[in-house]
């Protein structure tokens, strides 16, 4: 492991030159815990014409998920006004929770945060969620803010990458990256599609926060702290894949786009894209002690295993998060990172996630 880590540090110095400390990772979920068996019973009442597909719920790899509203809310029709009010109320509350936790765990104060990056894909807010959060907690009025929207499930890793580059360009600054997705609020019981039925089997709600910092040259931390560090980032965009996943804008909310072609695309295209990213940074898949992939669902993780030729144990944290929380869109990959840190994993790790576009996002980190 020491040889792998030394090689990673050497390559990163000549390649992407990222050296950003991960000061903390915090997570949160709303209060309503959903058992997958209960979710199936409720889905059968909403989608009676798809009962023949009920085996899907047992084969997701999910046991429990979390939702911000009781299940009755999801079984009723809602317009944009109702959905937006509900989303903003729950999203800002969860963002406040993870922001306070992440900052406290980082050993800094809210007034010490210099940059705030906030992401979501499951609701709308103008002013943006970061502005709403400013009125809830004691962040400085002069903080730089960056809202993100549109990167879907990939935004946890993509947002972490963008926040890391901001930190790298501002040595000594504390950058707080927050992401929240409330997938349950996107349920539309009047949508009889298979895609909506599949989403009802997979998605849950959550939020996560990360505090990052690039130490100033010569500081005590720069001279040898053992904090986890981000070393490299990258992404890959596949042209002509707009209908692989995403949202359609419907009269009463977001209409899910989820193509059955997704696993096939990943199976064909993931390894070449990943190998190209690693080659640009002087790395190979064998360089890593652990792989932290966004668990989009059982089929996605199985496809990753096949495409990369890896044993299931290499994705142990991804499978564990999927089982306990389901797919929380952008948030999920940071839950996987958090679990790896809680397990005291060490050495080079690769984070990866996928989102609309269709795109893959990568982060190389020393834990």
How would you describe the overall organization of this protein?
By secondary structure, the protein is an alpha+beta fold. The protein has two domains: 2-17 and 228-366, Peroxisomal Thiolase, Chain A, domain 1 (3-Layer(aba) Sandwich); 25-213, Peroxisomal Thiolase, Chain A, domain 1 (3-Layer(aba) Sandwich). The chain is built from twelve helices and 13 strands. The strands form three sheets. Strands 5-4-6-7-1-8-13-12-11 form a nine-stranded mixed β-sheet, sandwiched between helices. The longest helix is centred in the N-terminal third of the chain and has 27 residues, at 80-106. It is globular, with a radius of gyration of 20 Å. The N and C termini lie close together (12 Å).
In short:
The protein is of the alpha+beta class. Helix content is about 40%, strand content about 25%. It contains 12 helices and 13 strands.
Helix content: 25-40%
User: Average pLDDT, to the nearest integer?
Assistant: 91
In angstroms, what separates the terminal alpha carbons? 12 Å
CATH topology name of the largest domain, in short, is Peroxisomal Thiolase, Chain A, domain 1
The strand line-up of the biggest sheet is 5-4-6-7-1-8-13-12-11
Largest sheet: 9 strands, mixed
Strand content: 15-25%
Based on Cα principal axes, name the global outline.
Answer: globular
What is the CATH superfamily classification of the largest domain? Thiolase/Chalcone synthase
CATH architecture of the largest domain: 3-Layer(aba) Sandwich
| Spatial extent as radius of gyration | 20 Å
| Count of DSSP strands | 13
H and E string? HEEHHEHHEHEHEHEEEEHEHHHEE
